[in-house]
User: What shape does this take?
Amino acid sequence: MGWVYVMAQLSASISLETTDSPVFDQYLSLYGRLGCQGLQGIWRNPIELDLKNVLQRVARAGLSFDSVHGTFGDDFDVSTPDESIRLQTILTHEQDAELAAALGGALVVIHPACVIPKTAGLEWASRYDRSVEGVATKGWGAAVDQLRAPLLIDSIEKLAAIGEEMGIIFAIENIPGYLWYGNNAPNLATMIRISSPVIPKVSSIGMLCEMSSVMPMTI
Assistant: This one.
């Protein structure tokens, strides 16, 4: 159902798609007993929410929302060379930010790319150049990285402007192994830090590492 992460307090994730089910309240009760204070709403398939009802139930459990996990899936990608999908994803993340604000949170977690489909026939082990028993193999990843890097930077800039206006931080989550781009945490952090003159002026872009700690990039 969810995973627990540390963000200056003990918080846990919960699916917003279960708000019409007793399971939602059962998890709220469990998280409260575990000492959690915050919640991250998982929002994969946007649905109509009775926000007042949801917030009342959350408050009764002694919890509050600190973040929302932005919409994700095969059709959402902020570093894709398909411009229509990339711009639509940015727009969708703006809507995610509106939801986060309505829930009282200040953070939206987003993915740097979508999952590599199995039909692509690409193996993670062969992403970069390597040598096995003296046999050199050319990897496919360098070309993908070169194509997607400037596109992610542009998306970061656009999201930074949105976040600054709304008072929301977009935290980019690296997911090792199966995304088209953004898997390498140090490289992603460096990109966020130095990508544009726009970024140092705002505090609206951050990073969610796979070890589940948020590192704000506000320099």
About this structure: The two ends are 35 Å apart (CA to CA). The CA atoms of residues 108 and 147 lie 25 Å apart. The helical segments are 22-33, 51-60, 83-103, 141-166, 185-194. The longest strand covers residues 10-15.
